[in-house]
Design brief:
about 675 residues; alpha+beta; Immunoglobulin-like; 5 helices; 49 strands; elongated
């Protein structure tokens, strides 16, 4: 009995455990992750078998319902739990018009109940795909001819391609662009601008023409779950533009007068009478655009563009331009302000030592540049050395630069080419830059404390003085010599004249006729004597003539010469005191030549007679005896002729007055010439 009871209990327990294992609640369908397009409905499925507990949907851990009943605070416009076919098994969660707020992690849970334990489904991540839209559409425009316009189109959550279309008068849609690529027929004046990463596809039309009028719209193509989107059309109307006044733009600087660093000034640019108004823009001569503010812009085309500046060092010498552009302008018009001359404040002080760098050729030296900040100005940050107008670099072998709190330039070797060169030191700080300069003077090597150039000058000066002394001595000697010769000549001439006067008193016989000289008269310079000739007439055609004796002492006992009787011979045109004596010499020479010609003529006659006589007796003598006798006769005749010449010379020497030194020298020269002629003959 006891044994049967035990077996019964064991069977009961086995059956009970089997029933329990097969009656536990479980999921038939669990929710899964999904991507849902914005504004679409979506259902998350959850099915439970042998349900004993309560089905609860949770979003990001927050419960939404209990079985088919939504919790309070959960909108039925968004969520709903339903069982389309099998109530008690299906607990599907419907999400209506999904937005980004419904994105998250969803789980389906079943609470523990009875013999069933708590159930939790796998997490389902709901991702909301935002729908592509056109947030900014083009608007209707009335634009001037030749203007440049832009039509806006901004896409959000863009997935497809963005296209621009124009509907012309024939109601045909003409594609203009796809993305940023413009169709060829429009590419010359149409372009897509803007930030495409932010969905901006702005259509820009340049040099607007009447043919550009029409309705413009942008279009997003469908892609995947995304559908196509069209913007509302925008009507573009092209009207004629009015040009601004040709005398504008007009520029002005306020205030006028002297400018100083730190002053506030305003640059004003004006234009008027344009429709649409001109576009004004301030810039610099270097191409930099300045920020400006449009102060006035009215329907009458009056526009004013201002820019305000705080003058600094960078504005010194700057030129500012105002550019005026208009649809009717073929080129940009400009007006200018400047250049500005600003009184700059010195922020650093630069000293260079020495200002005059003196260095001997071949030696080295140093130049120091020290810059200090003034007041609270920033310190100097850099030094730049320059030789003439070129920066000195580390590759320049002539210099070495050392920079610390100050900068030192080492000149390694002074060269002649560096003489009078300029070196400069540029010190720069964040707010200022100042320049200091020095000049180089190359000194020549010295000897005994004097430079070579000075020594050459001193030596040249001494040599010049010596040459001048020698030249002066030569001049003095020449003057003395000339004066001495003149005195000797005057003495000789005096003796000659005295001798002539003495001989004239005794009626000396001269030449081929008889001539006597008697005193004739005198004037302020000469004594005159009458030459009386006897015998044949003189060659001048005169028997008597008056001649002056220039160097003879004046005989004051003679009476003055009447002007009517004062006649100087034509062949004695007296220019100086020597002419009369030269004429006497010439007359004596003519006489000697005449006598010599006569003697040669007589000798030739004698030779002819001798030759004829020898020929007559040649038949009775031998040839040798005849030749010897002829030569002996010729020698005898030549000796006789020379003897007669000597006698004539002795006679002339006794009868003629004494000769001067120059005349005696001339006689000796003529005697030597005659001797040479005889030797040659």
């Amino acid at each position: 009995m006891t044994t049967s009871r035990c077996w019964f209990a064991l069977c009961f327990l086995f059956l009970a455990s089997f029933h329990y294992a097969h009656s536990q609640q479980s999921f038939l369908v669990e929710p899964s992750s999904v991507s849902v397009l914005e504004d679409d409905d979506h259902t998350l499925q959850c099915s439970v078998s042998d349900k004993e507990g309560v089905v609860i949907w949770q979003k990001d851990g927050e419960p939404l319902n209990s079985d088919y009943i939504l919790n309070s605070g959960v909108s039925s416009n968004i969520y709903e739990v339903e069982a389309p076919t099998n109530v008690g098994v299906e607990y599907n969660l419907i999400i209506k018009s999904v937005t980004s707020e419904e994105a998250g992690t969803y789980t389906c849970t079943v609470t523990a109940a009875g013999s069933s334990s708590n159930l939790v489904s796998s997490a389902a991540i709901v991702t909301v795909i935002l729908k592509q839209t056109i947030s900014q559409t083009p608007s209707a425009r009335d634009e001037k001819l030749s203007d440049t316009i832009t039509l806006q189109c901004v896409a959000e959550n863009k997935v497809g391609s963005l296209e621009w279309y124009r509907q012309d008068d024939n109601q045909d849609l003409v594609k203009i662009s796809t993305e940023t690529s413009v169709v060829t027929t429009f590419s010359d004046r149409y372009s897509i601008v803007g930030d495409q990463d932010n969905g901006e596809y702005i259509l820009e039309i340049r040099n607007l023409q009447y043919s550009d009028a029409g309705e413009y719209s942008c279009h997003l193509t469908e892609e995947g779950v995304q559908g196509q989107v069209w913007s509302s059309p925008a009507e573009l109307t092209v009207i004629a533009a009015i040009s601004p006044d040709q005398n504008y733009p007009e520029c002005e600087l306020v205030p006028q007068g002297e400018l100083s660093e730190g002053d506030n000034v305003t640059l004003i640019c004006r234009s008027q009478y344009g429709d649409p108004p001109a576009t004004l823009e301030w810039g610099t001569s270097t191409g930099l655009t300045l920020p400006s503010v449009t102060v006035e812009s009215t329907g009458g085309g009056q526009v004013r563009e201002d820019t305000t500046l705080i003058l600094g060092r960078e504005h010194n010498g700057a030129i500012f331009n105002c550019s005026s552009s208009h649809v009717t302008h073929t080129q940009t018009k400009r007006c200018t302000v400047g250049p500005l001359y600003i009184d700059l404040m010195q922020r650093i002080r630069v000293d260079i030592y020495p200002a005059l760098v003196e260095v001997e050729e071949g030696d080295s030296t140093t130049v120091t540049c020290n810059a200090t900040a003034i007041d609270d100005s920033p310190d100097v940050v850099s030094y730049t050395w320059r030789y003439e107008s070129d920066d000195i670099t580390d590759d320049d072998e002539r210099f070495i630069i050392e920079t610390g709190s100050m900068s030192t330039l080492h000149i390694l070797s002074g060269a002649k080419s560096m003489d009078s060169a300029i070196i400069s030191c540029l010190a720069e700080s964040p707010v200022d830059a100042q320049l200091a300069i020095a000049s180089i003077k190359i000194l020549e090597p010295t000897l005994f404390g004097l430079s070579y150039t000075l020594l050459v000058v001193v030596v040249a000066f001494i040599v010049a003085i010596i040459l001048a002394i020698i030249l002066i001595a030569i001049i003095i000697y020449c003057v003395w010599k000339k004066r001495q010769q003149k005195e000797d000549m005057d003495e000789d001439e005096k003796v000659v004249v005295e001798h002539q006067v003495e001989q004239a008193t005794v009626s000396m016989k001269v030449g081929s006729g008889n001539e006597s000289i008697t005193p004739y008269g005198r004037d302020n310079k000469y004594d005159y004597y009458m030459i009386k000739r006897e015998g044949r007439r003189h060659r001048s055609g005169r028997h008597n003539e008056v001649v002056p004796l220039g160097s003879a002492p004046l005989d004051r006992s003679l009476p003055p010469i009447p002007k009517a009787t004062f006649q100087v011979p034509e062949y004695q045109n007296i220019k100086n005191d020597k002419n009369i004596y030269d004429e006497i010499d010439r007359r004596d020479q003519r006489r000697r030549r005449h006598r010599r010609r006569r003697r040669r003529h007589d000798d030739d006659d004698d030779d002819d007679y001798d030759h004829m006589d020898d020929h007559k007796h040649s038949s009775r003598r031998s040839r040798s005896e005849s030749r010897g006798r002829h030569e002996h006769s010729s020698r005898s005749k030549r000796r006789s002729r020379r003897r007669r010449d000597r006698d004539d010379d002795d006679y002339r020497s006794r009868s003629e007055p004494p000769r001067s030194r120059s005349e005696r020298s001339s006689d000796r020269q003529r005697s030597g010439d005659r001797y040479d002629d005889r030797r040659r003959r």
